[in-house]
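Example (one chain per record):
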Amino acid sequence: MKKLLYTRITEKTIALFLFAFLLLSRASITTTVNFVPLNTTVVQVAYSGCMFMLYAFEKIKRNEKFGTFHISTFLSILLAVYIVIFGKVYINPPLSQYTNGIFMRQTLFLLVVFSTVAVTCVYHLFDGVLLTAYYVFTFIILFQFLTNITDIAQLNVATVFNDSERARVTYGFSHYNALGAFCICYLMIWIILRKRGQMPFGNKWINYLTLLVSVIMLFGSASRNAISGFIVFSLCYLFMVLRESKIGQRVRFFVECTIAIIVVLFFSYGLTGLSFSDLLNQSNRETLLEVALPTFLKSGRMVVGLGLASNEIYGLNQTPYKTYWLDNSYIYVLITSGYLGCVFYVIMTIILFVGLNRVANHALRKIFLSLAIMYMYSAMFETTLFWAGVMQNYIYMIIFLVALSGCFNNPSSDNNIQNISSNNVKK
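Predicted structure:
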């Protein structure tokens, strides 16, 4: 404790403290606990301003030019242009008040992400940012678990994929799927940190305990999207490892075929005893094809979409268009921003995968690509793709943009990425 009090406060320390504060503020929305009793808009504006000031201070101190162009910059520009075009240019008058709200929310989200990425890159803080996120997530997980400990009584792993029998709990989160996504994000942070050679808390048993708690909470959420997404991540990572392994070609081919068969069986019949179409029907996502798309095609606004509004607004049919819930990022983009919006998203997705495939660090490249595939898969069941409002995007988007910035392609930069704990040890 005495050592902590005498720790020298640096720009890096300030940046990581601000990031921890931001995550706690976002957790106040994701959970039912108000960890930071401040207006979230004010928090995001203040956070972005402070982070950009830290970035500018370091650039000026080093006498370096601002805004080096790379793939990350290109993707960032497209994200910003998209929200400006559909949030300020192509506004559907009946939805204008909802569009303004979405524009503000997405703009603040992008400012938070861009400022964090800028500081992470200029100070080489990738490990520090992830460690900070890991510590904050650990606190939230343990707090929610202990204050909602009675929820564990309803845990039944055997019925997680059984739609008619599964019991779901939230452990104080806003929704079952929000809890599931949070736990998976926590696992992803841990996986990347271990691959980076970091040991949070300096003790593996503490980490194993908190990971066990997160897994218990994950199964308690019974979030099929989150659990199947992690399966997709694991299979993709295993497939990439096999492609680079030195085992015999026949053995590798056999294992790859086995993986393919498992995937086909899982998504055609799954662990639920229901077909994929039946799952869509029971989760109310059949309305995407039966109601939402026909409404879109008859609207006369196919090029620029019906207009930006939250999924909740569309789901409760508070617009002039009958759509019901748009719990699919791809259909959500199509309906709200039309064919033009889809072009933006296709280009951004291509840029993301091309950039991740160019990461020089082979170990991280496999993880990042698998994470991106899981991210795209999960977007089929929620409106989360490159979008504000969900906790995991404040982590995933930072990871993706830092990876695309070339930080891991420069050996000297990669080796000098800082961490925030003097107790971290190599794997």
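Caption: The chain has one domain: 2-411.
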